[in-house]
Design brief:
Shape: globular
Structural class: mainly alpha
Order of helices and strands: HHHHHHHHHHHHHHHHHHHH
Radius of gyration: 21 Å
Strand content: under 5%
Distance between the termini: 42 Å
């Protein structure tokens, strides 16, 4: 099966899968533009469909001109340009329209992050207390909850400080952080077919491009995790800890990556460099909210995601965990038990067969997050971007980056 997948991936020098990806993505974007009930998604699809179609045409031209060797740089260039067309361009269009008064050009999480920045600027904590949320009108109460880690509020500060402009839209700053993190990560990967797939997974997959253009808060977290894996693959464990620590300071989804990379660092004797920033940055981010109003932090980060808030989370995609929690007696307890069992199995495997390379660590992260997303009582379809990117990132890490760390850097980490 693995050999068959490898042959399919390499067909026509990788162009066959490239063409299929862009054609399917163009169809998905077109259908989204016509049928989605979310107006930001429809706006994304109307622009992205043309970008994906142009990418498919470019792949066809490359296939005709270079039948035997399409060239890895050319395929990578198409991916980067496509990302700009299907994520960057729709994002800017929606940000400009929103700044001009359109209220249907951003998902709710964008507004929530900007509110976090405003609260942080004026009160010292990005969170509202339970009583403050209760005082909000019922139909707006959901926006009072900020179920992210405190670091996410940084992306809301530009709008809180400068006002309502297109460039203060939180998505713009999500995108800037993502570009910087991915550019740094990709420079650590040697040119190869695996690197092209890694780039595509992090940029042009419809679930990734759509998320960045319309909501975006998951994308910089994912990009920082991918950067952390690339840094670990090249022996830069101190910087790896800083990257994944920054991700965990923004969103809890990065914590499994912290745990897996911590095991990798301990196994390789690099934990003294990795652990302080990986654990210290999330804890440091929690300090101001804990000092200002600890109950508000607990209400937003723990009670609300666990279903004990004043309103219900809208994250209700029909995955097994959600269906079990809704359709069986005691379903929420059963789903939680299955999630805990899956975590225990993955934890046991992590300890007994701990990863030796960053590529193996990426596989642990990808499969672990996939299991968690499928079994969580409340989750979103868009969260699948995490396992998709991590699993497709693994081959590039495993094969292409093992010897790229500077010798003096490696020696330093061994001390």
């Amino acid at each position: 099966m693995t050999e068959l997948l490898r042959r399919v991936d390499r067909a026509a020098g990788g162009l066959a899968v490239d063409l299929g990806l862009y054609v399917v993505a163009a169809v998905f974007a077109g259908v989204t533009a016509v049928t989605s009930t979310l107006l930001p998604h429809r706006a994304w699809g109307a622009v992205a469909a043309w970008g994906y179609a142009a990418a498919a045409l470019a792949v066809l031209v490359l296939w005709v001109l270079r039948r035997r060797d399409p060239g890895t740089p050319a395929r990578a260039l198409i991916a980067w340009i496509t990302w700009a067309a299907v994520a960057g361009l729709p994002l800017i269009i929606q940000a400009v329209q929103r700044a001009s008064g359109r209220t249907d050009r951003a998902q709710e999480e964008v507004v929530v992050v900007e509110h976090m920045g405003e609260s942080l600027l004026h009160t010292g904590t990005p969170y509202l207390s339970r009583s403050e949320i209760a005082a909000i009108p019922l139909d707006e109460r959901l926006l009072g909850y900020r179920p992210y880690q405190p670091g996410m509020s940084i992306f809301g500060l530009p709008r809180a400080i400068a006002g309502d402009y297109w460039w203060t839209d939180a998505r713009i700053w999500f995108a800037i952080t993502t570009v910087l993190a991915l550019a740094a990560a990709v420079t650590l990967l040697r040119p190869s077919p695996s690197r092209v797939r890694a780039i595509q997974a992090a940029t042009v997959l419809p679930v990734t491009a759509l998320t960045l253009a319309t909501g975006g808060d998951d994308i910089p977290v994912l990009a920082l995790c991918l950067l952390a894996l690339a840094l670990a693959a090249t022996g830069r464990y101190g910087w790896s800890g800083a990257a994944v620590g920054a991700a965990a300071a923004c969103k809890l989804f990065a914590l499994p990556v912290v745990a897996v990379l911590a095991v990798l660092a301990i196994r390789n004797g690099r934990w003294r460099r990795f652990l302080p920033p990986a654990i210290g940055l999330p804890l440091l981010a929690l300090l101001p909210p804990l000092l200002v109003n600890p109950d508000a932090l607990i209400e937003n980060v723990l009670r609300f995601p666990l279903g004990h808030g004043l309103v219900t989370s809208p994250a209700q995609s029909p995955f097994p965990g959600y269906l079990i929690s809704q359709s069986l007696p005691g379903g929420r307890v059963i789903a939680a038990g299955l999630l805990a069992a899956a975590a225990a199995v993955i934890g046991l495997l992590l300890l007994r067969r701990s990863p030796r390379t960053a590529g193996t660590a990426a596989l642990f992260c990808g499969w672990g997050l996939l299991a968690a997303i499928l079994l969580m009582p409340t989750t979103r379809f868009g969260y699948l971007l995490y396992p998709a990117a991590l699993l497709l990132w693994a081959p590039a890490l495993r094969k292409d980056t093992a010897t790229t760390a500077p010798r003096h850097d490696t020696a330093l980490y061994r001390q």
